[in-house]
Amino acid sequence: MTTRLPRNKARPEALAERVYQTLKNDIFEFRLMPGDRFSESEIAERMAVSRTPVRQALFWLEREGYVDVWFRSGWQVKTFDFAYFEELYDLRTVLECEAVKRLCELPSAQCAARLRELYQFWCEAARLDDGKKVSQHDEAFHMTLVAAAGNSEIARIHAELTEKIRIIRRLDFTREDRIAATYREHAQILQAIFLQQTGKAQQMLSEHIAASKAEVRKITIHMLQQARLQPIE
After folding, report:
1. Which of 19, 104, 12 is nearest to 67 (CA)?
2. Which of 35, 44, 186, 208 could form a disulfide with 122 if both were Cys (CB 3.0 to 4.6 A apart)?
């Protein structure tokens, strides 16, 4: 017989998850700006919860690299470090190009089988125009490429990296032309892999990532400028 925990014992964890998601969305949407400082009490009052779930949520965000804790001074949203994101994108390029190399070395039928679902979505299915959904599928495209290459450690590191750059990467899909470019470039990369054109596939992938990196940098700077112009409520 399974013993059920009283509701009040499960509630703090659920509250912490709600606070965590709300704060993360505030950071992603620049409602909490890089460099903003705040206390646990301020967040608790705004969300009508105690400080316990707030503290838990903030520790999760700190572990993921979104906030810093200052002794006796509360919490702070991490300042935007473009050099750090440049390094993450460089590492992403290295990992994904290695994955492409390994995929091109597989027997053609095996490679095609591993990437069949990607081909169906990016080359055959009707295109999506919802930027948020395309962003999710774009992330899945690159993670699937790496996972399909067969090295679990490379895939693990790539997954951790993907989480770190998500805050800015998703901004690449706020314009229709970038969505169209993503569909076109993904299809071209897949075709080169299927033809076992390693150098061509790696070059197209590198250029694809570089274009995305440049675009999200411009959009991030613009959004930060716009957010600073918003009146304080």
Report:
1. 19
2. 186
Query: What pTM was estimated for this model as a whole?
Result: 0.78
Distance in angstroms (rounded) separating the CA atoms of residues 18 and 24: 10
What domains can be seen in the chain, in order of their start residue?
10-75 (1.10.10.10), 80-227 (1.20.120.530)
CA gap 91, 97 in Å, rounded: 10
Query: In whole angstroms, what separates CA 160 from the centre of its chain?
Result: 9
How do residues 149-170 score in pLDDT, each as one tens digit? 999 999 999 999 998 888 888 7
CA distance 164 to 28: 12
Q: What is the mean pLDDT of residues 88-108?
A: 97
At 69, is the secondary structure helix, strand, or coil?
strand
Q: What angle do CA 112, 150, 169 make, to 5 degrees?
A: 85
Beta-bridge partners for 227: none
| Amino acid sitting at position 202 | Q
